[in-house]
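testing teh design pipeline on a random one, pls ignore if ur not involved
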């Protein structure tokens, strides 16, 4: 397996972004997709989230390594959102939230983000998601079921994301009739899955304020 670093850019025009990255389906990190003057960069922190939504019940998910051959992993427990934020603040943990979207509970938070929309209006601004995970948690290697273009903006902490084009799906051992790989790509078993020796992808490390563009149909393995 070989990984090349994803390029970081800023101040790109819509025309250049569409021609250089969107149409060729090439990942890139945009340093100014979420405008630096966005209120979110001042307001959003765990204490604020606990204040506005801390009592909401959330399902907690653990390591996905144990369920790579299953369609979906089951929650391992439940807590309040406030308790979960205390957990990921206090120590590394594999515990994640899945399909909990704070922006649907508090839609007014969407007004805290100002986009430098390099897509010329193609981005769906009314349908963003928010993701939470503890240091050390991962999201298994997968392709998004809706095959959408994705822009992941980091607000706290750091994410390391490995990316692979759809054309390498056979080498990644996709679970039949599903959208994720059955392999542990971080600790690959080349004897059982020899195709992993031949994959070529990208590695993106996104810092707070940066946005990773993931083209439609690209595999991505997310590490918090």
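output:
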């Amino acid at each position: 397996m070989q990984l090349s670093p994803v390029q970081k850019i800023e101040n790109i025009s819509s025309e250049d972004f569409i021609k250089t990255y969107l149409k060729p389906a090439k990942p890139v990190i945009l340093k100014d997709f979420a405008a630096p003057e966005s209120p979110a960069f001042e307001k959003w922190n765990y204490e604020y989230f606990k204040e506005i939504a801390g009592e909401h019940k959330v399902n907690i998910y653990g390591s996905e390594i144990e369920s790579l051959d299953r369609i979906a992993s089951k929650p391992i427990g439940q807590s309040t959102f406030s308790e979960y934020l205390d957990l990921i603040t206090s120590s590394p943990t594999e515990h994640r939230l899945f399909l909990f979207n704070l922006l649907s509970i508090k839609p007014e938070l969407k007004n805290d983000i100002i986009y430098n929309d390099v897509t010329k209006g193609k981005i769906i601004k009314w349908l963003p998601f928010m993701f939470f995970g503890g240091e050390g948690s991962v999201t298994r290697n997968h392709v998004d079921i809706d095959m959408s273009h994705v822009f992941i903006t980091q607000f706290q902490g750091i994410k390391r994301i490995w990316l692979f084009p759809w054309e390498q799906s056979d080498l990644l051992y996709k679970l039949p009739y599903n959208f994720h790989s059955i392999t542990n790509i971080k600790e690959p078993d080349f004897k059982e899955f020899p195709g992993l020796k031949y994959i070529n992808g990208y590695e993106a490390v996104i810092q707070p304020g940066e946005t990773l563009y993931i083209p439609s149909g690209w595999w991505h393995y997310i590490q918090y």
